[in-house]
Amino acid sequence: MRRRQQDLRQQCVRTVTPTVNCPKTKRDLSELTDEFCRGVGWQAWRWLGAWPRQRNGLAGFQFNVWAPNAEHVGVVGDWNGWRPQWLERQGALWSGFLGDAVEGQLYKLAIVDVHGMPTERADPFARQAELRPGTASKLVGTSTYRWHDAAWMRKRAQVQARDQPLAIYEVHLGSWRRWGDDPPTCRELAKPLVEHVRKLGFTHVEFLPPLEHPYDPSWGYQVTGYFAPTSRWGTPDDFRYLVEQLHIAGIGVLIDWVPAHFPKDTHGLARFDGTPLYEHADPQRGEHPDWGTLIFDYGRPEVQSFLLASAHYWLTEMHVDGLRVDAVASMLYLDYSRQPGQWTPNVQGGNWNLEAIELLRALNRMIEMEIPDVLCIAEESTSFPNVTLPLADGGLGFAYKWNMGWMHDALGYLALDPIERSRHHDQITFSTTYAHAEHFVLPLSHDEVVHGKGSLVRKMGGQWQHGLDQLRLLLGYQWLHPGKKLLFMGQEFGQDREWNQDYGLDWHLVADPPRLGLLAWVAHLNSLYRLNKALHAGDCDLKGFDWVEGNNHDESILIWQRKSADQALVCVLHFTPVDRRDHWLPLPLAGTWRYVTSSALVEFGGDRDKLPDPVQASDQYGRICAQLDVGPFVVLVLERATEAAT
């Protein structure tokens, strides 16, 4: 430690005169505090925390801290020898101007809590933090970063409309690629990541939480700095640069955002002023039994302002194009992961967390009013109703919801030995019965390749040599199924080992021709998805999907039609290793049908040199059929070239 623990209470001597209004706005501190305490302080990040100011010609920083129950609040830092300079109480806040504080210096809040106990805390509104294992905050000035992504920002609303393609590449920044023992910075990652994502044709990247967190294996899901890009991967401007470079390349940026819980680390939010300030006071509602973390008090207006301000900060100051809200299911239910007797019903006698529901609605209301061209996506794993229904119609107002049922069914089905799949055919077709109940994203995320689950390619049932063939099939099933797409890094080339946050991906595998074939298949699927309205315009439209053949249990073959106003494509998926050439299968209309693509082509790792010749569909004993080349584990897309002769 750079300093010895001091008896903060004994040193409680006023050293500053703090009554300073926020120069960023014409409103005074009392008005801003009132807004914050009413739960509508969306822009509280602009004045709470530490901001550079000048007073009577003296440069320094203005500090504003919410700690209403503390006995005393001060600041210790590099400029004062880590001896506290005390702030003055201003209603619910502690406020003061500290001369000689300079941008880049480390500091902590010195809090004598309601019980008279001294603690040192990171600033909840800090915009940068010390590199772990240090836990101090860092003084940051007003951003002078000059953005060069205006062209992207102007077209963002159009690009992110529901009738447009959305294909997300999910990334953990610390382990995507490494050139040494330590992870590279966001600035160092920008060029190779942009080139890779652009080459593969993804429309967006989604970063596992880039917010400050103390523990690497949490992957960012246990946040201590809700306004600070983690120092592991560089400075806030390094993160801005990465976002900007992706935007210049025409790629959107989503981040995982975690309002569901926070860790108990003593430098963080837990019992911040000696009371349950950010967390709910009732342990039944304030602690997660599974994760050992604390749950926000969603009904407290100041906590609402804190969370809304965090979302506002990332969506505006960092130019992020959307949030994927983590663990929404745990927020929605009072009995989430609890046994009878471990939870108390709400005022209506039910198990919904009404305060959390209102917080999520407030989040989407803020976005609707302030930043309507960004996306807000719910990671919600239950059948909670109307997650993506507009707020005006009584829904939660999210743009999309993760379709966890699709993911579990698809992976469970493909884990079966192919000979067993005919007896579980309904498992692979069931998701189409509710595919348009919400606006869905189909995820194959990091959660499926950790904690002993293995990589996607190792989940495939049957003989191991068919793993890559079946992974091509799984990805084809994902891209041709109604719903937007998400794929975790490494699965685009069939990473063999389970993901580990301490190591870079196994890029050496890409030298293997079958892995290159899989990469080419992913790029081809994204191109197909972008260029054909039938595959994306109807993702959220019931009229965009029709079954052609959904009951072929014996052969494990699915045939459906994807449609838009001016196009229709037929998709054929075969889930066994049997080679069925010139195989009679139904098509929706008579006439000439041409092959648009086939996963069996050599360029994708298959064994076919070229696409088969067009086929003729005609009436065969009362049903329109054609003879198709249906290879093992193949994905086919066909389009009608001409109508049948009359």
Description:
Among the domains are: 29-138, Immunoglobulin-like (Sandwich); 212-400, TIM Barrel; 543-643, Immunoglobulin-like (Sandwich), CATH 2.60.40.1180. Helices cover 21% and strands 24% of the residues. The protein has an 8-stranded parallel beta barrel with strand order 10-11-14-17-18-19-20-21. It has an 8-stranded antiparallel sheet with strand order 22-23-24-29-26-27-28-25. Strands 3, 4, 7, 8 and 9 form a 5-stranded antiparallel sheet that branches. The longest helix has 19 residues, at 513-531. It is elongated.
Provide a concise account of the structure shown.
With 646 residues, the chain is α/β, with parallel strands linked by helices. It contains 12 helices and 29 strands. Residues 1-25 have low confidence and may be disordered.
List the helices and strands and how they pair.
Elements: H1 29-37, E1 49-55, E2 58-66, E3 72-77, E4 85-86, E5 88-90, E6 93-99, E7 106-112, E8 118-121, E9 137-138, H2 150-159, E10 167-171, H3 186-200, E11 204-207, E12 211-212, E13 225-229, H4 236-248, E14 252-257, H5 283-286, E15 287-288, E16 293-294, H6 301-316, E17 322-325, H7 328-332, H8 354-370, E18 375-378, E19 400-402, H9 404-414, H10 425-429, E20 440-444, H11 467-480, E21 484-488, H12 513-531, E22 545-552, E23 557-564, E24 567-574, E25 580-586, E26 591-598, E27 615-620, E28 623-630, E29 635-643
Parallel strand pairs: 10-11, 10-21, 11-14, 14-17, 17-18, 18-19, 19-20, 20-21
Antiparallel strand pairs: 1-2, 2-6, 3-4, 3-7, 5-6, 7-8, 7-9, 12-13, 15-16, 22-23, 23-24, 24-29, 25-28, 26-27, 26-29, 27-28
Helix pairs in contact: 3-4, 6-8, 11-12
